[in-house]
Amino acid sequence: MKIVKIIALILVVAFVGIQFMPTERNKNDIVPPTDFMLVNDVPNDIKNKLQISCYDCHSNNTQYPWYNKVQPVAWFLENHIKNGKAELNFNEWGDYSNRRKKSKLTSIINQIEDGEMPLASYTFIHKDAAFSKAEKRELIQWVEQLKDSI
Amino acid sequence: MKNFKMSIAAMLLLAVSFTNAQEKEKMNHDHGTMKMDHSKMMNMKSDAKAETLLNDYFNLKDALVADDTKKAAIVGAKLAASLKAFEASSYTAEEQKELADIIEDATEHAEHIAKSEIAHQREHFKTLSKDISDLIAITGTKSTLYEQFCPMYDGGSSWLSTSNQVRNPYYGSKMLKCGKVKKTIN
Fold it and tell me: Does a structural domain hold residue B35?
C-alpha cells in the first residue's frame, strides 16, 4: 500500500513537473500573400472544409484546443504540426513551383481518398474535421480541377 | 657564412622542386580535361550522376515489380541520396532552375518511398516517374529507355524501363504484364 502511494506521488510530481516544459506554439495571425486561399479562387464551402480539417497542422496558425496546454499532449501535437507543415504548408502555397503544386495536389487527393487524412487521432476529437463521403467526393473533384488547371 | 650559403641552396632547391611539382600537377590536370573531353565526345549526352540516380530508379522499379516493399524502401533512400548529390552546375541557367524543381520534388517522393508501405510507395512512384523522365529529357542518358504505360492504375500511369518487355511496377504479380510501350527514348 505504501509503495502504491509512493508511485502515485512520483507520477503526480512528474506530471506537474512536465507542465513547465516549454513547447513551441504554432501561432501567427498574419496570413501571407502566398496562402492557398489567396493564390487560388477557392469556393467558400471548400475553403471552410480545408481550414477546419487541414489548417491546424498544415499552416502557420493552429487553433489550439484547451487540452493542448496540458503535457504530454502538447508534445504529441507539436510533433504532428511540425511534420505536417514540413509535408505541406498551405500558407506557403505560392512559393511552391508548379511541379510541386501538382505533386502536392496529387498527394492531397491520394491521402483523402485513402482516408489517411485527416488523421484518425485528430478527427477523434475534432468531429467536425472528418469528411463525409459526399464531402470527400466534392473536395477531391475540386482538387482534381485545380490540378488540371496548373 | 657557410650556414647562410647552405640555407640559400636549400631554399633554391625547395623553390625549384616546388615549381616543378606545380608544373606536373598542371600537366596532370590538362591530361584530365583532355580525357574528359574525349569521353564527352564518345557519348554526346551523358551525365555520370544522372546515370547513378537513373540506376537507383530502375532498382526501385524492379523492387515494386517484385512486390518487395523492404527493398523498395532501401533503394528509395538511396535514390534520395543520389538526387541530393546531383550536380547541375554544367547546365544552362534555365535548365538549372528546372532541374532544381525536379530534384526537389523527386527527392520528396523518394524519401516517402523510403518510409511507406507498398500502396503508398506506388502512389509516389507515379509522380516520381514523371520527374525522372523530365530529368532525363534535360540530362540525356547513354542507354535506350522505354516509357511504358498502364491504363488501369490511377487513371493511367507511366514509368521508365531499360527493357521493352512490360513488367508492371504498379501492380506487381497481380498484373505483371499489364501495359504497353508508349515511347522509345534514345
Answer: no
Q: Is the ipTM of this complex over 0.85?
A: no
> Is residue B4 in a domain?
no
- Contacts with B18 (C-beta within 8 Å, 6 or more apart), sequence order: none
> Which ranges constitute the DSSP H helices of chain A?
2-18, 36-39, 44-53, 55-58, 73-87, 98-113, 120-123, 133-149
pLDDT digits (tens, 9 = 90+) for B16-34: 444 444 444 444 444 444 4
The continuous run of DSSP H or E covering B154 comes out as none
Inter-residue contact B86 to B136 (CB < 8 Å): no
- Cβ–Cβ contact B116 with A under 8 A: no
- Domain membership of residue B25 (yes or no) is no
Q: B83, B99, B104: best mutation site toward chain A, by most A Cβ within 10 Å?
A: B104
